[in-house]
Amino acid sequence: MFFLDNKRGKLNAANATNEENQTNDKTNESISRRKVLVTLGLGGAMLAGSTLVPRFASAENAQSNSNGDNQVLRVNNVEELKSLPSGQLTDGLYVFVGGYNNNGDGGGKLVRFVAGSTKVDNGGTVHKPINDKGHKSPKGEGCFEVVHHGAGDFRWFGIFDGSKNADDALDALINDPSIYRVEAHSDLNFVKRHVYHRSDIEVDFHGHTVTTVGIELNTLDNPFGAVLFFQGVATGVTQIVTLSDDLIEYSGIFEVADSSIFEVDSWWHAQIKNNPSGGAQRELDYLIKVTEILDATHVRFNYKLGWQLAKGRLITYKKINPAFRCHVRNMSFIGIPVPPNGTSLRPFPTWDQIGSNPVAYEFAVECDASGIKATKVFWPVVMRRYNTHYVTERCQLMNPEERDWGGTGYLTQQINVLYGHVRDCNTSNARHLNDFTCAAYCMVENCHGDGDEYGPFVTHGQFEHDLTYIGNSGLLSFANSGTTWGDSAKRVTVKKHIASRIVASKRLTDLTLEDCHAVVTYTKPGVKMANSGSFWVNMDGLQMRGCTAQEMVTISKGSSRAKRKNIIDSCSFGMLKGYEIARPIRSGTTQVGYTPSNGELTILNSEFYNVEDVTLGSINKLTLINTWFKGLPQVGGTVKVGTREIIMQGGGLVDCCFLFTGAWDKVGDVNNAKNKPDQWITIDGGAVFSGVNGEKAFLKSVDPSNVITWNFGNYKSIAADVNIGHFHIQGGMNKLKAIGSHFTGGKYEVADGAFGSGTYFFMTSCLEEGVNRAALPAENEMVKHSTSNFSIS
């Protein structure tokens, strides 16, 4: 070791030995103050007036100063530091340590001797000197403490790779309130699951690998048993209020029992008592902040309510001291093997306690996770509950250890979260990339999942609302986890998305899909993913624009909450034989996602192609504007129509038939009262029918119980051969009006009795080119079709 003289920059050999110079003829070199600072990472900008290091002085000055304020010693390693003679250890003595084991090994640091300190030697930031007899000094006789500017380093603890477990070092650094940043400069191994209750800390692994070889068992069914778990703390202050009036949607003003215990900027866990129909059916369950005290029983929170809460329901408020700004960055995480299971039962009691995952947060605010790349994890890579205002970005999960067991194989699961932003993340062969459960006002952007049959993007349906997805790829499944959670979500917007499937058929209100595409996907060469290339959507404020599905769109209705219209615009859908465009009644079925649609839908500028045998099994009123149904080429197709009313303006049918089956609810079931069978069809606006199909007609009704009103205006019907009927009406009660229509080739086919008492058939001002009229009914007072038409043989 040696002293430094700041004035002369020369080595002063008094009371010091020079371990670096083993021969007397080697020139002694001094260490400059700048070099000390640079070594510590403080930089030249802090030279002037720095309070972290003393003025350099000669040994004589150092010896004459009982406080040791002016002297800096240098030693090669920690062992030499701890072995300094006790006579030289004066309060305030600074020592520069060249390395942990060897000078220059990266574990260098500046330490200061604090006389009387009772801190425990932790091997890195605190070192107890060894007395002259080779023992650590007794408690209270002082220790060396690292001088730092808030950034801690695992190398201070002699950790340079994964061969030495880094748990104690991690605890020493994060539990030191003066440390705000922890840095890793090598691979690390952890064997403990750490829980921290602090704020303002950043842990940056700089891309190095983190392993958990030999990690302790987790507790049972605990996704928060991560290597790093940052958790806020409940204060014990609780208040319960019974709502004296409805709490309306979008309200930021909440009723409380007594506002005197609430303070502006305080944080509270607000939870509504669950609905009786599901143990987790809670529309309000978030960590929110008080922004204003309004009166004795009302406060404003930083959250606009997504669902109306009825008078008489109970809200419980619990005061929380959150963890703020705890960030984890740039980690390459490798979990540990877990024996395969493949069942819904634990193969042995500790099976789900073996695996590891890197990061978890609970009751956390502004806590970000970035640059975490993981494989072989069990529970989610980034687990969150009761988080708000956070970012998860540039994270990756490849080939997790488990994905069939509930909650496993996720990149990030987010429960009861607000204002989250997940971006630039990706997964391969995982269960979920992004899982929202009771989430609101969150965004997912530029995230991509391959091997995605489990669904990279999901919500549980626990009353999520106001979620936005932009520029992602991978299967989407919304509100699809069961009645326990509520099967409900609201105002979900998805833009520019590629997916194997988009499943949004539960109680999802105001779903917006723009530029979304469902494509046929294969799980392995030649093995097609079931139902890939399809949309399943709930017709409750549904709006789709610019979307395509290679194989099917299926519409159901499980909720009636929306105030906006159902619209499908500029979309294209391939059809599959035997599938349903709109769900029909299934006797006795109450399963959400399989119930019929009793509302109105407008489809414009769209196309249904490869129609072979599909069903429009419900919908009260379907308005088709410039929309086409095209049969399978060389085969043709049939659309079985249970829709109560169809209005077609423009567009038309190509090689396709509308076969009317009577109104969808004519029989009724447990969900829908029995109704009349009446149907209406209006064709106008320049629509065009053409080609051939297996039913030998473009419009057809054969069920004797049908009651149909046919309105034909400005449209053109072109039969490809003489056997194709422009309309085929057989039995039932019918009313037909055709004014200004254009029929070419083919025939009309109307059975005797189809226009009996209480019906009419009126056809006038139509243009007919080579149409066989032989099967038209005989004219009478209610049947007129021979005059005022222009017929060309």
TrEMBL record:
It comes from Paenibacillus alginolyticus. This is Peptidase C14. InterPro entries: TAT_signal. It comes from the Bacteria.
